Amino acid sequence: xxxxxxxxxxxxxxxxxxxxxxxxxxxxxxxxxxxxxxxxxxxxxxxxxxxxxxxxxxxxxxxxxxxxxxxxxxxxxxxxxxxxxxxxxxxxxxxxxxxxxxxxxxxxxxxxxxxxxxxxxxxxxxxxxxxxxxxxxxxxxxxxxxxxxxxxxxxxxxxxxxxxxxxxxxxxxxxxxxxxxxxxxxxxxxxxxxxxxxxxxxxxxxxxxxxxxxxxxxxxxxxxxxxxxxxxxxxxxxxxxxxxxxxxxxxxxxxxxxxxxxxxxxxxxxxxxxxxxxxxxxxxxxxxxxxxxxxxxxxxxxxxxxxxxxxxxxxxxxxxxxxxxxxxxxxxxxxxxxxxxxxxxxxxxxxxxxxxxxxxxxxxxxxxxxxxxxxxxxxxxxxxxxxxxxxxxxxxxxxxxxxxxxxxxxxxxxxxxxxxxxxxxxxxxxxxxxxxxxxxxxxxxxxxxxxxxxxxxxxxxxxxxxxxxxxxxxxxxxxxxxxxxxxxxxxxxxxxxxxxxxxxxx
Length: 506
Prior knowledge:
Glucose Oxidase, domain 1
């Protein structure tokens, strides 16, 4: 494949401003900071010829991670050259899966062993080994975040075959979504299929139980109880993200009941990926573009699910054990820097609750390497640093904004903002789900949503994949949706054009 001559121009347009906000999570900063450090490492430079300068900023219970735009553009240019080299791209993506599997095995130690039997020094050594493995899949998988040129190129292929695609009674955006669907099943898919099987198997029993279902299941349906416990042993970490909680018994039971009523069953497509490829008569080179895109989508899902497992092991077991030894919560431990964690476990250094609370108010960690700039800031110093990066914009007059189309359709409905997993209850049938980014834990709400709008993400993100599977109009990567919209706003989601219009403010 020949890389487009204007690829640098496409990249320049895709990243605006001095700082690029890549994501926002409801989580403490420790694990994201490990990743930011890795993106500024010698191994990152070896893979891409350059590194990414960034900042991790915690405030108001959310952690934001920014990249210095100029450095991010350089990595995207390097990654784009890899993507247009078939053997390099596929080889690097295969490497992500190998490294992720190894990292999972290292993290599983904390789940499987009794950590109370380890000395502080032994515990630190095991953590150090796991942390070194944890970040490596991100470095090779950074490729999945660098797709603006590859996306543009893939869509140009579809435009070339437009007359054949319309014969399927689908548009270019829908065809694109079908073509980049992964060949392989991710752990997320396996979990959903397992729930579907339980819903079918126990539909009658669940329908006959009223009242407190959990207690009655344990008493009246021991086989279902055993199957739920087996499911939790296999999948409770799915969708854990950076802070949990893990899936519990009640959540599984609720999901099985909804699926038994037909609420959460996926919709079958009449048009297949292979059907589009055959009908269009793609050349080997054109088909290869979508093969790589399909692999990108799968690898991104596989890496995210692997991270779910690693985060679950580290937070629920390692950080919990460290907290037990030093009188801190597992959350508080995650406000330490890696160096501070090392001092705790190797030198018995104790950090006060007051010290950690100052970080909880506002905390910044940055890889900027300039004279006069520190690596860590807390409290008022962190606030000042944050104000330099974030440009405060008044969105009170905003009535229309744009994003990337993930699944076409047009819906007019009321908005519900979901910032955390605990707020999913707010979504009622037909509401517009507005969030920073969806995860597998959002599925019960997604199935009820009339449309989805996210701040983050691109064509291979979770919201994009799921919306195409369930044919829910979806616009991702708006950057500002949760800032502009409020609960109860009446909006028109025009996912044919990627536009959100506010019709009436609440």
